[in-house]
Design brief:
The protein is of the alpha+beta class and 236 residues long. The chain contains six helices and ten strands; from the N terminus they run βαβαββββααββββαα. The protein is 29% helix and 21% strand.
Length: 236
């Protein structure tokens, strides 16, 4: 049976907590899987910094979402929420989500969009206590989550520079999605054509609230955190 598991990490406001892993029976039924994901996530990964200066800026925060694919273990996802000073407010991540061979066949070219966006990213964002005003991702398949949330989300295409200890790769969306490109500082951010207005909103809020932050840097933090939380992500 396929696994859909989320790892318990730390709640810095209380004490470290560790819970049993949750095993899902199937994710052929989309609504059923989403309920399983949310139920598991409420028991799982959570990191909230207690920095008072970060608390002041909680209403003006940004989310960074990434998903990585391991050839053996499946999909790993992470969400980092930062304030306008790039300080972390929350971090959530998953253990591997591994579709079965039959599911891969049935979902076909839509599998990455479904797993990365509709399941992993949607569940992580639903658990966040902060509400980001904009979301950035380096995984194009995550953009499918936009149909389920009201927050603008943009994709930053990155060069493939994988961690030397890992065989993780960025899943490639095989959808026929059209994009609208916008420039945020010196970075090109792409949004789905069906949500073209997101690009202007993202650029305006970023310029006003966080022009000093390197847009690419938070993704490195998420990747390193995924390695720490998931030893299976490291190559043998």
């Amino acid at each position: 049976m396929p696994h859909h598991r989320l790892l318990t990490c730390f709640d810095c406001e209380t004490n470290p907590v560790y819970n049993d892993r949750h095993r899902a029976r199937s994710f052929i039924n989309r609504s059923h899987l989403y309920e399983l994901v949310i139920t598991t996530l409420t028991r799982g990964v959570f990191l909230l910094m207690s920095d008072n200066s970060a608390e002041i800026d909680r209403g003006n925060c940004f989310g960074f979402v990434t998903v990585r694919l391991h050839p053996e273990h499946g999909y790993f996802g992470g969400l980092l929420v930062v304030n306008s000073l790039a300080r972390p407010l929350e971090f959530h991540c998953t253990l591997p989500v591994k579709p079965s061979r039959a599911q891969s066949i049935l979902y076909g070219p839509t599998l990455d969009d479904f797993v990365c966006g509709e399941q992993i990213a949607r569940a992580l964002l639903a658990k966040s206590k902060s509400k980001p005003i904009s979301i950035f991702t380096d995984t194009s398949a995550v953009l499918s989550v936009r149909h389920f949330i009201s927050i603008p989300i943009g994709w930053i295409e990155t060069e493939s520079k994988e961690h030397e200890q890992s065989v993780l790769v960025i899943p490639a969306s095989n959808s026929n999605r059209s994009y609208r490109s916008n420039r945020v500082d010196d970075t090109v951010v792409q949004v789905p054509e069906t949500f073209a207005e997101d690009g202007q909103i993202i650029a305006a809020t970023w310029k006003k609230l966080a022009p000093q932050i390197d847009l690419m840097e938070p993704f490195g933090r998420i990747t390193e955190a995924l390695f720490e939380a998931n030893p299976a992500a490291k190559a043998a």
